[in-house]
Protein: Quinolinate synthase
Amino acid sequence: MTSPWIEPANSATALLLLGRGSDPASERGVDCPGDLPAASDPGLVARATAAKAALGDRVFVLGHHYQRDEVIQFADVTGDSFKLAREAAARPSAEFIVFCGVHFMAESADILTDSSQKVILPDLAAGCSMADMAVLGQVQTAWEHFEDLDITEPPRGGKPQKTNLANDIIPVTYMNSSADIKGFVGRNKGVVCTSSNAKRALTWAYEQGSKVFFLPDQHLGRNTAVLEMGFDLDDCVLYDPHKPQGGLTGEQLRTARMILWRGHCSVHGRFTLDSVREVRDRVPGVNVLVHPECRHEVVRAADQVGSTEYIIRALDAAPAGSAWAVGTELNLVRRLALAHPDKQITFLDRTVCYCSTMNRIDLPHLVWALEELVAGRVPNQITVDEDTAHHARVALDQMLALP
Ligand code: SF4
Structure:
C-alpha cells in the first residue's frame, strides 16, 4: 500500500521569469500576433484536436518531458531535447515541426532538420535561463583571454615549446545552450554533450587536449568530472563571465583540468542538501533520485543520479512498494507518480519547482500556433543562420561519433 501523490506547496519565490525576448518589467513574455485564445475557453481541447487533424501529416508535434499535461496530450512524441530533435529529423515529410519545449531545443531541431521544414515555438518567451547564461560575446571574450595566456608544453622528445592556453583546451557544451554556443564549440574543435553522454564526451575531449572548457552548466560539468571521472574538486575552476578574466588568475587557469562556466539550471539548482535530509526523515527507506544538473552536494547525497530518460527508466523498473524522492522538474515528477500508483513517488522539495519558461507553452499558445498553420500563416518560426548551423552541426556530429 503506498501513499498518494502529494502536491508540493506553492513557493513564494518566482522562478525563471525571463524568457528570450520577454519583458522583465511585466513578466508577460512576448505577444503573439493575432488572437491568443483565453485559457478559460472550454473549447481549447476540441480546437487543438481539430487543427491538428486538419494539418494531418504536415505537422509533427514534439513535447519535452517537462511540458504541462494539457500540452503533452497533443505531442506525437515525447522525450528529452536531443531525442526530440532527432525525431524531428527523422520526419522529413512533416512540413511543420511544432516544438513544445524551449528556444534552444527548437534551434537544435532547425539545425538537424531539412531546410524545407519549419520549426515553430508556440511562445517565443519560452527561453532557458541556463542557456541564456552563456552569451556568445562573453564566451569569445573568455576564449581570447585563454589565447593570451602562455603555457609551456611538456617536452615530447624535443624542447619545451611555448603556446597559448587555448591550444590545450577542448570546449564542450551541454545540449542546453544556444545555437551560437554550439557553433562556437564546433569552430573550436569541441563537442556537444547531453546529460546521458557527458562522461563519454569528456573522455573523448581529454584525448584531444589536457583541459576542458565546459559550457554552460557548471553542475553537470563538475558532477561528471568528479563523480564519474575521479577528478578532485580542486581540478575544477569556475569562470565567472561577470568578473575580469573570469575571476581567475593565469596560474589557476594553467593548472586547472576543468574550466567550468558559471551557469546553472534555476530549477534543479533549487534542490539543497536540506531537501535530501528532510525527505529521508519524512519517508523511511526512500531512494533519492536526482538529475545531474543539481548541485554537487545534492548529487553526492543522492542514491542515484541520471538524465531525465534515466529517471523515467529507473522508476519504470522500480519494484512495487518502493519509495522515491525525485529531484527534477515537477510536471515530469507528477506525471511519473500518477503513472506508477503502486510506488510512492514524491517530489524532492516541499515547494513547487516548475520550469516556468517551459510552462509558457500552454494550451492557448499551442491552439494559436496550430490554427495559424491551418490558416496558412507560419507563426514564431525559429531559424538558425547557415554558418552557425554548419558549425553547430560539426559539434553535434562529433557527439554522434563518440565511441
Ligand atoms: S529545466 Fe532548467 S535547463 Fe531545462 S529548460 Fe528549464 S531552466 Fe533550462
About this structure: Residues 16, 66, 102, 128-130, 176, 265-267, 329, 355, 357-358 surround iron/sulfur cluster (CB under 6 Å).
